[in-house]
UniProtKB/TrEMBL annotation:
<dbReference type="InterPro" id="IPR036380">
    <property type="entry name" value="Isochorismatase-like_sf"/>
</dbReference>
<dbReference type="InterPro" id="IPR000868">
    <property type="entry name" value="Isochorismatase-like_dom"/>
</dbReference>
<dbReference type="InterPro" id="IPR050272">
    <property type="entry name" value="Isochorismatase-like_hydrls"/>
</dbReference>
<keyword id="KW-0378">Hydrolase</keyword>
<feature type="domain" description="Isochorismatase-like">
    <location>
        <begin position="38"/>
        <end position="211"/>
    </location>
</feature>
<dbReference type="Pfam" id="PF00857">
    <property type="entry name" value="Isochorismatase"/>
</dbReference>
<feature type="region of interest" description="Disordered">
    <location>
        <begin position="1"/>
        <end position="28"/>
    </location>
</feature>
<protein>
    <submittedName>
        <fullName>Carbamoylsarcosine amidase</fullName>
    </submittedName>
</protein>
<feature type="compositionally biased region" description="Basic and acidic residues">
    <location>
        <begin position="13"/>
        <end position="23"/>
    </location>
</feature>
<dbReference type="GO" id="GO:0016787">
    <property type="term" value="F:hydrolase activity"/>
</dbReference>
Length: 234
């Protein structure tokens, strides 16, 4: 996703009238940034990141940018939580999941198949948490909100796919669960440019801050270093 929906002066490329309308409505204020963030990587599974799958697209750039962010999170012990959509065979073939009636191409996301495996180019670790979900939001029907609270997190960086679907839905529910959200722009991807741009515009206006990857990396880099075992932080 090479085109940017925001110019360097912070204006959208949807026109001055749109900008004035949203400013008049009081949207677009920056979110606060806490000192204990978590990184939630949404659905960067092979079924979404590889164009060989019906539900996928080539998201090499998104995977690489997200890998960079994950690697930056490790030294400061920022929790990395991965999500994946996966259905049982009965769910994929039946009519119990209403979403699959609207998006039948996602019936290929069956438990245990290559389509639901995390992209192997990502630096996933066994100790990382994995949230398996059935819907768009990583919060709906899962323990993600409770997990973030238990970890003491006060900010969430949301990455992944697709921008107009699961990334946006996860961002909305993160805010509704009480977490300020940052979305590193290079770390979100979609199947087409238009929905991607529209979703980022919507997120920036109403739910979180859409920021350059460089900004997200700088934010992580300014976090206090974790204390060594047996030594107080300070």
């Amino acid at each position: 996703m090479s085109e940017e929906p925001y110019a360097q002066n912070g204006r959208s490329r949807y026109g001055e009238e749109t900008d004035r309308t949203y400013e008049r409505a009081g949207f677009g204020a920056p979110v606060r940034r806490g000192s204990r963030p978590a990184l939630v990587v949404v659905d960067l599974t092979r079924g979404f990141t590889e164009d060989a799958f019906p539900s996928g697209a080539d998201m090499t750039e998104v995977v690489e940018a997200t890998a960079t962010l994950v690697q930056a999170a490790r030294p400061v012990r920022v929790p990395v939580i991965w999500t994946a959509i996966a259905y049982s065979t009965a769910e994929a073939q039946g009519n119990s999941v209403t979403w699959l009636e609207k998006a039948p191409g996602m019936r290929a996301l069956v438990e245990g198949t290559r389509a639901v495996a995390l992209d192997p180019r990502l630096p996933h670790r066994p100790e990382d948490q994995l949230v398996v979900k059935k819907g768009a939001s990583a919060f709906f029907g899962t323990s993600l909100a409770a997990t973030l609270t238990a970890l003491g997190c006060d900010t969430v960086l949301v990455c992944g796919a697709t921008t107009s679907g699961c990334v946006r839905a996860t961002t909305v529910d993160a805010v509704q669960s009480g977490f300020p959200v940052l979305v590193p722009q290079e770390c979100a991807g979609d199947r087409a440019q238009g929905p991607h741009d529209a979703a980022l515009f919507d997120i920036q206006a109403k739910y979180g801050d859409v920021v350059p990857l460089s900004d997200a990396l700088a934010y992580l880099g300014k976090l206090p270093a974790p204390a060594l075992p047996g030594h107080p932080a300070g």
